[in-house]
Every structure is written in C-alpha cells, then in structure tokens.
Design a protein that fits this description.
Layout: E1 4-7, H1 60-78, H2 85-92, H3 96-109, E2 112-114, E3 131-133, E4 138-145, E5 149-156, E6 161-169, H4 176-196, E7 200-208, E8 211-212, E9 218-222, E10 227-231, H5 232-237, E11 248-252, H6 253-269, E12 275-280, E13 284-290, E14 293-295, H7 326-329, H8 331-337, H9 346-353, H10 358-385, E15 389-394, H11 396-414, E16 424-427, H12 434-443, H13 445-449
Parallel strand pairs: 4-7, 7-11, 12-15, 15-16
Antiparallel strand pairs: 1-6, 2-3, 4-5, 5-6, 8-9, 9-10, 12-13, 13-14
Helix pairs in contact: 1-3, 2-3, 6-12, 9-10, 9-11, 10-11
Length: about 450
C-alpha cells in the first residue's frame, strides 16, 4: 500500500514555448534520432486515418497542400520573431494568395492565431498581421510516474501550462495495477481542467523510469518501481480512453525530461543544444541530446548510465550487477552513505554537509564519492560520444556546486581530448516533474508534424 499526499500547486504558468526556440529547432521538437526506425516514434497524426497520398493517382494537389501547410507551420513555430503572411511568402517562395489560404486553414484548425496589426514602418498597403502559436486550443498531456511522486501536466501550443497536478508518494515495490489507475484518474482531472479552458487534448505520453517496449504501450523493466512486463496503457486509461486524446504512448522518463530541458536551454541561448542530461531521483537516468534531438538508440534504451559499472567489484545494484553508478550516486545510496533517512531531500543533504561536525564531514564524503563515480561514468560517455556539455537534473540540481569540482577533476584526467576541450557542467531549472512537460511537448508533435489532419473538413 502506498502513502501519498496531494501537493497544492499554483495556477497556470508559462513554460518553454515551441515558438521561442532557435529557428529550425522546432521541427524536431519531441523527436529523436531513432524516430524513423520506430523508436520513440512520432505520435499518430490527429484522430483521423492517415493514408499514403503519394501512392494514389490524382492526389498530388492534396499532397502539395499538406506539404505546404507543414512548411508554414514549421516557419511560424520556429521563428524567433512573429511572421506575417508577407514574411511567409518571402521565406517559402509561395504566392501571397496561396499563403493566405493556407494561413486561413491553420487559423480554422486552432493551430495559430493572429496578433495585433503592426503599426508604422512607412510601408504601403495593409498593416502586417503577426502570426503566433494558438493559445488554449489544442493541448498535449504528459503523465509521469516516479519513485516518489506522480504528476500530470497539460501544455498548449505556446508551451503554457493549462493544468497540472502532482501527488507525492512512495511507489517503490508498488503494484502497477493500483498505481497506474490512480495516475490515470489524476491525468483525467488535468485533462478535464484543460478542456474547461477551451483546449482539446490531442494525445498523451506517459513517462516511466525504465525500459519501454517497442510498442510504446508496455514497460519492459523499471527496477526502482519493482515493475516488470506491464502493459501500462490499459491500466492508465481504464474506461476513459477518449479523454486522453487520439493516442497514448509510454516513453522513458529521462528522455522526456531531457526534451523539456533542451527546449528550455534553446530558448535561453537562442540556439540548438547538444548535451548529456543526467538526472537522479532514486535511480539515475540519462539522455544524449544532439542539436536539440534526443538520441534514443536502436531499441529506444540508450541512456541507462546509472547501470554503467564504475567499480567492477563494488556493491550489488538493484539490477543485479556489481558497482553500478547508482550504488554510489543514486539518491538512496547518497543518503545512506551520508547517514541520513531515505525520506530526506537533497536540500537536507546540502544543509548537513555544511555542519562542522562528524555528520557534516560524512555528508561531504558521500557527495565527493558520488562526484567521483559520476565523473568516471561521464568520462567514459564523453570519450564515446564526443559530447562535452553536461546538464544535471533532479536531485543533482541542489548538489551541483558540490558535485561539479570532483566531476570536472575526473573528466580532466580521464577524457582523452581533455586538453583540447572545454567541459561545461550546468543545471536544469528546478521545474518539478520535467518528464511530464516533455511528455506533453512530445504529444504536441502530432499537430506540428501533420497540421492538415487538424484542419476542419468541408461538410
């Protein structure tokens, strides 16, 4: 039986928007390098059947319209500054009349909205009307189940949070047949709140801390939850399938969190991001991000850095192997090494480490050992991947200033290219449940990938 409490949350707040990323990066929002192989696959296109237009005689005009709508959508969503119809015509080479018709389609679909006409500038003719992603019309739903909380968040096309809920609890060794329906009930409440604000939920992505099956419906293994071989989607949605949108997928929690972080950093730096994301809750998850695209590997299982052995004869990990990174730098191991209860927080650990007594010194030694283990594992990843930016998330955020010196020491001594490279170890924002945001962002890909499927059809 799990114990939990519902956390009181503030009202809707802005999140990283599709439109504030650097130009060109939006087209890959929610995708991965394995997508064309079916891994971390693109969400189905809306709730209508999509056929291969190119194989049907006489369908060339519709195919061209679909391609042009996709092009305009990507231009609008990836622009740093809002574009007008005239801007789109100039960028794409389409005629103004064609752009105008297609923009009308996107307006009718609730994908974009018109801003206030620009005034001044000395140009002749009608004032330019800027085009923006639409607000509270379509929404993606992200659901996250972690070891010590579950969360659901609905985002619209601007990235604004329309509704969210987080429930604290202890889900280690839990029964998925109990936990997943409760997470589904929470997600249903969030979906209903988003709908009450005028949005239509297009789809749902469930984030789990483990290996996800190729069907994106099943969990292969989540060691820290104690789950194995679970068909998670039916348990999540129950009898309320329609409320979750046109599709429901499961994906790895760390990869979805990395997606949210990539968008956040791209917005801040105004350029695409390449980094190795490492996050700790009870276990340790990671994801490789190349030019703002999450690389998931051939089977979608890349990034399990927590189960890299940093000491072959080290303590036994929950996965059965010896000396895994998690046994040194996972939250549970960190707290145990510091002599603290497993219910303690990262901030509690920071505060104890500042004490001038034996308890403080023990805490500092535990953090230093975790930094050593992280440095060893990350050095191996850097030698293999040639990625020199590291972003720390989860429990590592509050500990970053204490972990960084030992991580960098190990990188400088173990990475072959160290003398010609610059390493950067930084932290993600303190946003709670980033994988829920990543799930919602990925769900929204179906709109940007196939805008025609959302355009109202003639009666």
């Amino acid at each position: 039986m799990t114990q939990d409490t519902t956390r009181s949350l503030p009202g809707p707040r802005s999140s990283t928007a599709f439109g504030v990323t650097s130009r060109g990066s939006l087209a890959r929002l929610g995708r991965s390098s394995g997508e064309e192989r079916g891994d971390f696959a693109r969400a189905p296109r809306g709730d209508r059947v999509v056929s291969d237009h190119s194989s049907r005689p006489g369908a060339r005009q519709e195919t061209l319209r679909e391609s042009n709508l996709l092009l305009l959508t990507e231009e609008i969503f990836s622009a740093v500054e809002p574009l007008s119809r005239a801007d789109l015509a100039m960028r794409t080479g389409m005629t103004r009349s064609t752009v105008s018709r297609l923009v009308d389609d996107l307006l009718a679909a609730g994908i974009i909205r018109e801003g206030s006409p620009a005034v001044g500038g000395g140009s002749r003719g009608r004032p330019a009307v800027p085009l923006h992603p639409a607000r509270a019309t379509l929404a993606g739903l992200g659901v996250e189940i972690s070891v010590d909380f579950m969360a659901a968040r609905a985002l619209d096309l601007t990235g604004e949070t329309l509704a969210e809920e987080i429930i604290d609890g202890d889900f280690r060794g839990s029964d998925p047949s109990e936990v997943l329906p409760r997470a589904g009930a929470m997600a249903l409440r969030v979906a209903q709140q988003a709908t009450a604000r005028g949005a239509r939920v297009v789809g749902t992505v469930l984030a789990l801390p483990g290996l996800i099956g190729a069907d994106e419906h099943s969990l292969v293994l989540a060691p820290n939850l104690g789950w194995r071989g679970v068909d998670v989607v039916p348990l999540l949605v129950g009898e309320h399938r329609d409320a979750f949108g046109g599709f429901i997928h499961a994906a790895n929690e760390a990869k979805l969190a990395a997606l949210a972080v990539a968008q956040e950093l791209a917005a801040a730096d105004q350029q695409e991001q390449t980094f190795l994301y490492v996050s700790a809750q009870m276990g340790i998850g990671a994801a490789v991000v190349i030019d703002s695209v999450v690389d998931v590997g051939q089977h979608g299982w890349a990034g399990e850095i927590g189960h890299i052995s940093v000491e072959p004869e080290g303590p036994q990990c929950g996965c059965g192997a010896l000396g895994c990174l998690e046994t040194y730098a996972g939250k549970r191991s960190l707290l145990a090494a510091a002599g603290m209860e497993r219910s303690a927080t990262a901030q509690d650990l920071v505060e104890r480490s500042q004490r001038d007594d034996d308890a403080g010194r023990t805490a500092c030694e535990a953090i230093d050992r975790a930094g050593w283990a992280l440095g060893v594992a990350l050095a191996g990843a850097m030698n293999l991947l040639d990625v020199h930016d590291i972003v720390l998330g989860g429990v590592y955020g509050p500990l970053a200033d204490m972990l960084r010196p030992r991580i960098e020491k190990e990188l400088n001594s173990r990475v072959l290219s160290a003398q010609w490279s610059t390493f950067r170890v930084r932290t993600a924002s303190a946003q709670s449940a980033p994988a829920a945001s990543g799930g919602a962002l990925r769900a929204m890909r179906c709109v940007v990938d196939a805008p025609l499927q959302w355009v109202p059809q003639p009666a």
